[in-house]
């Protein structure tokens, strides 16, 4: 990490309370800005997971979810080269968000003549 010169880390791990919390807290101590992906990690119990998250927040870590991380990497829809991959992830893994996205795409791709006929009941 030091060789890259980067100061931000995004991390997820198997066990929140050990595999995630320890490196997050140590990286914060080394001066890194650390983001940890809460729903890509899990504890041996719900309580262990939640307490570990609170511990990392108290140490200065920034929690986020995988969808927020993916969206931050995308930034906006103008970055068209990566939109298809993000859209595919949304459809396959985001439940109602993916379904809503698919529905919106269908609406946007409907020719305007068909939209007008539907609206007036033809």
Structure description:
There is one protein chain. The protein has two domains: 1-64, FAD/NAD(P)-binding domain; 76-122, no CATH class. The N and C termini lie far apart (63 Å). The chain has helices at 16-29, 46-59, 66-74, 83-93, 96-108, 112-120, and strands at residues 8-11, 33-37, 62-64. The protein is 57% helix and 10% strand. It has a three-stranded parallel β-sheet with strand order 1-2-3. The chain has six helices and three strands, in the order E-H-E-H-E-H-H-H-H. It has 122 residues and is mostly helical.
How many discrete domains?
2
Instruction: Please count the beta strands (DSSP E, at least 2 residues each).
Output: 3
Q: Assess the beta-strand content as a share of residues.
A: 5-15%
Strand order of the largest sheet: 1-2-3
Uncertain segments of ≥5 residues (pLDDT<50)?
A: none
Distance between the termini: 63 Å
Rg, nearest Å:
20 Å
Shape call: elongated
Question: Strand-and-helix sequence, N→C?
Answer: EHEHEHHHH
Q: What is the second-level CATH architecture of the largest domain?
A: 3-Layer(bba) Sandwich
Mean pLDDT: 87
CATH topology of the largest domain: FAD/NAD(P)-binding domain
Largest sheet: 3 strands, parallel
- For the record, what CATH class of the largest domain applies? Alpha Beta
């Amino acid at each position: 990490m030091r060789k890259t010169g980067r100061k931000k880390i995004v991390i997820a791990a198997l066990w929140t309370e050990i595999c995630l919390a320890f490196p997050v807290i140590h990286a914060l101590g080394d001066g890194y800005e650390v983001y940890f992906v809460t729903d890509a990690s899990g504890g041996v119990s719900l309580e262990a997971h939640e307490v570990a998250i609170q511990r990392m927040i108290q140490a200065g870590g920034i929690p986020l979810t995988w969808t927020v991380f993916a969206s931050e990497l995308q930034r906006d829809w103008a970055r068209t080269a990566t939109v298809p991959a993000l859209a595919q992830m949304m459809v396959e893994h985001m439940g109602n968000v993916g379904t809503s996205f698919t529905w919106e795409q269908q609406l946007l791709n409907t020719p305007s003549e068909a939209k007008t006929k539907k609206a007036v009941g033809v």
